[in-house]
Each structure stands twice: as structure tokens, then as C-alpha cells.
Fold:
Amino acid sequence: MPPRRRVPITVGREAVAVCRSAGFAADRDVTATAVRYTLEELAAVAPGRTVEVRVPPYGAAQCVEGPVHRRGTPPNVIETDASTWLALATGELSWQAAVDSARVRASGQRAHLEGLLPLVALDSGVGQID
Structure:
């Protein structure tokens, strides 16, 4: 079952567009909405509970099929800041470039999002899924 959406799609897409136009330095509320929306998109595109993606202080999502983790710290964790996450989600930054520049901390054998990003098309701001 896909995760329940908390951010309406139109509101989330608008927040992503505002963040992008502000160079990923929009105000806190808009940034929070954009991050939560894109984390929901990730969970919808790659459902599962093998990897936890954290974007403090705005949110986290579990994604990617595989072994299910239920207690304690997950074995596969990805953590980054909001501007890096939104740049990844929109395709303005590649996964490899983010890892190489240490803008993403990834621990665990399956802690990568290569092939799952970008979530939002650069030209239209429309997500891959509805």
C-alpha cells in the first residue's frame, strides 16, 4: 500500500517551484512543504522500508523494497540538508556529485538513490507520478 499523502500534490509542486526559483533558499514554511512533498514522492516511486532518507528538521521517509527494518536505527540511512535534497529531487544536482562533495551522508550497503532521482522534471515541475 502506498503511503498516505499529507501534502496535496498541487501545493507540493508549487512549493518546489518556489524553492527552485529562490535558489533552494525559500522561507522555512515553503521549504518544509517542498521537502515533505518530495519525500512523499520518493516513497511513492520507490515503496518499501529498506532505506530511510532524512532531511532534518523537515522530515524523513522510508523507501526502497528489500529487507524490512522495524526497530532502532535503520541499517541504510541517507541524510542531507533541505537545499541539497531539493536540488537532488529536481535534478539540479546528481546523486554522484552530491556524494562526491559530501553533501549527502549515506551509510549502509543499500543507502543510495541512484536511478530514483530526479523526482520532478526540470522543464515542467511535474512529478513522475500523480
Summary: Strands lie at 51-55, 59-63, 77-80, 104-107. Helices lie at 9-21, 28-45, 82-90, 95-100.
